[in-house]
């Protein structure tokens, strides 16, 4: 997942794209990094790659990186105009699952919070789960 893009003659001019070497990961703002690490590892199968509690943790799943930034992390500092980086929103990590209906039942048994009921469309079925800070995680079962 962390592959470097080869340089080419097409990128001879120095533009923004010439500086991008690959996808690095997804960052979520969280209030309590240890609590979020427990949530993602116990409930969704992520593995801890690195953590510097209470500020930061890096998790992985299937080659993708998830960065959890707590209030003390450099990735959580306010913007120059004063806006604070906060958890929540609608942008989300999408995890592929094999049996969404059974997965939803297991999540409910664990007392985890779902934002919606299962939705179905031509591409598959999905539901949105919330992590402890309100960040959405979409669970997606592709259509057969």
Task: Please describe the structure with a list of short key phrases separated by commas or semicolons.
144 residues, alpha/beta, 2,3-Dihydroxybiphenyl 1,2-Dioxygenase, domain 1, four-stranded mixed beta sheet, 15% helix
Q: What count of structural domains?
A: 1
Uncertain runs are none
Q: Give me the count of strands.
A: 8
The percentage helix is: 10-25%
CATH class category = Alpha Beta
Termini separation comes to 25 Å
Gross morphology is globular
Secondary-structure element order, as H and E?
Answer: EHEEEEHEEE
Q: What's the CATH architecture name?
A: Roll
Biggest beta sheet summary: 4 strands, mixed
Give the structural class.
Answer: alpha/beta
CATH superfamily (homologous) name: 2,3-Dihydroxybiphenyl 1,2-Dioxygenase, domain 1
Question: In order across it, which strands form the biggest sheet?
Answer: 1-4-3-2
CATH topology: 2,3-Dihydroxybiphenyl 1,2-Dioxygenase, domain 1
* Average of pLDDT: 88
- Number of continuous helical runs: 2
Rg result: 18 Å
Strand content: 25-35%
Describe what you observe in this structure.
With 144 residues, the protein is of the alpha/beta class. It has one domain: Roll (2,3-Dihydroxybiphenyl 1,2-Dioxygenase, domain 1), CATH 3.10.180.10. 15% of the residues lie in helices and 30% in strands. It has helices at residues 33-44, 100-109; strands spanning 26-29, 47-52, 56-61, 64-69, 93-96, 119-121, 124-130, 136-142. A four-stranded mixed sheet has the order 1-4-3-2, with helices on one face. A four-stranded mixed sheet has the order 5-8-7-6, with no helix packed on it. A hairpin with a 2-residue loop joins strand 3 (56-61) and strand 4 (64-69). The longest helix has 12 residues, at 33-44. The mean pLDDT is 88.
